Fold this sequence. Notes:
By secondary structure, the protein is α/β, with parallel strands linked by helices. It has helices at about 20-35, 50-55, 85-90, 105-110, 125-135, 150-160, 170-175, 200-210, 230-235, 260-275, 280-285, 315-325, 345-355, 365-370, 385-395, 415-430, and strands at about 15-20, 35-40, 60-65, 75-80, 100, 115-120, 140-145, 165-170, 185, 220-225, 240-245, 295-300, 305-310, 330-335, 355-360, 375-380, 400. The termini are far apart.
Amino acid sequence: MRELIHNDQLKGHKxxxxxxxxxxxxxxxxxxxxxxxxxxxxxxxxxxxxxxxTAETGVAFESGAHRAEQFAGADMVVLSPGIxxxxxxxxxxxxxxxxxxxxxxxxSWFLAEPxxxxxxxxxxxTTVSLIAHMLEHAGKKVFLGGNIGTPLSDYLVSGETADVxxxxxxxxxxxxxRSFKPQVAVLLNFSPNHLDWHADMxxxxxxxxxxxxxxxxxxxxxxxxxxxxxxxxRGFTKASRTYFVPTERFAAAARxxxxxxxxxxxxxxxxxxxxxxxxxxxxxxxxTFEPKAHRLQSVAEKRGVLFVDDSKATTFEAMAAALLSFxxxxxxxxxxxxxxxxxxxxxPLLKERVRSVALFGASRExxxxxxxxxxxxxxxxxLEPAVRxxxxxxxxxxxxxxxxxxxxxxLYTDYKARGDDFKRIAEGLQ
Length: 430
């Protein structure tokens, strides 16, 4: 058990955890280790993983629609990422707001290690992975987790210790944080996203900026230069501030393509510099960094046509970044569950860089009217006929780019499944 976590520390406290996914189960483990009385709720019926977990831990579990009586007398309600307090509505009416926290917030109370936390609409996973790689290359022991991989609560319960904790954090997590304070906080960018979850853009931005809210002058805030005027106008932090732009500092060594990744590398370098990593050490780390799957990942080449999986591009800003990453003609695959944003804003880029578009799945009514006069557009109910249509049109030297600009939940369980299916289809073409 870690020094800051003691048996019976929360004995007598009643905790309700909402959501039985990885973060919810991690919160339960931590709360049980602290001696709390825990109830786990999920609207869905339990799958095998949840059944095994409840059998292992003995935690009380209830599925189905949430009810106010399930939260009666709760000292703490822990929300998994993706579950907003607003979505629970009246069932939380009698729970004081300061008792509703994110799993990230709960875990941070018991963490002594310095934190580098990264948020943004796009590029979070690439950037935190770069940060961890740079720190490890410089000899630091690192825990990398949060919204990527291992929840912070599981790290605490494991008993492992690191020199630096590197966290990817989402607006979902940040919205329910009241004391979370990273020593280095990074905002990579901001664009319309998750408007199917947040009430509006202002709520979404406020959630992102919560990453800076409790920093002190001894801490460091890193943000894009293009947002400086707006951020300073909001008085967004008391921390020392530095702003970044894309540079060529690491471009020659990197396997990451596109100007957005030049910005990600610069932000990562500014974050690790605060922990004593030299520019030379960072450059050497960048040279050995492997791009993550589904992020501008080349998956096949057939008859001189390159197939690139950018399934993680679930926003129009991410799609635009992908379109700017190639100096060869693009055949674009787009479509899925619309999350907000203006597709018409991409028309100049489409005219400049895209030879044809194949839409697939949902949101045809969003894309087609905005794009049909700018570039040839076809629509297909699923991904495979869309890929085959583009391949039948493509010429040697073209790129068939899966950069959907939407979430995957119309046809797939997640963006990874969508990208894997794209790779399967591409590899099967003759």
